[in-house]
Amino acid sequence: QVQLVESGGDLVQPGGSLRLSCAASGFSFSVSSMSWYRQAPGKERELVARIISFSGRKTYADSVKGRFTISRDNAKDTVYLQMNSLKPEDTAVYYCSAEGKYWGQGTQVTVSS
Questions:
Q1: Least packed by Cβ within 10 Å: which of 74, 97, 106, 111?
Q2: For a pLDDT cut of 70, what percent of the chain falls above it?
């Protein structure tokens, strides 16, 4: 069955960095568009970044442009989210998604001093 397992969430100080990973299995990862979403307490889930399967085209939410980078390793069936210059408003549960249909369980990112 389809599995998406996120890891890498942590407590980090403002200005710090984290790299999230999402290990995928049970579907054709290399031909799937992969995305990172996040959901903060009391807010709706929002798209953070997406990477298209064939073109490798990347899109980002305006709030993270220039700070976050999405990437993928098709040999490892893994998608990453490198997060730099983290801000308290980046605090949320981060979810990995395949084609917007399959979801991981989420990983908590907390940015606080």
A1: 74
A2: 100
Q: How many residues does the chain have?
A: 113
Q: What is the pLDDT of residues 13-47, one digit of tens each?
A: 999 999 999 999 999 999 999 999 999 999 999 99
Instruction: Provide the strand spans (E) within 26-106.
Output: 34-39, 46-51, 58-60, 68-73, 78-83, 92-98, 102-103
Structure tokens at 20: 């999230």
Q: Tokens 């709706």 appear where?
A: 44
User: Burial level of 56, CB count in 10 A (0-12/13-18/19+)?
Assistant: exposed
Contact at 8 Å (CB) between 69 and 82? Answer: yes
pLDDT tens figures, 46-61:
999 999 987 789 999 9
How would you classify residue 105: left for phi > 0, otherwise alpha for psi between -120 and 50, otherwise beta? alpha
The amino acid occupying position 23 is A
CA 85 from chain center: how many Å?
16
Contact of 81 with 20, CB cutoff 8 Å: yes
Place of tokens 């790299």: 19
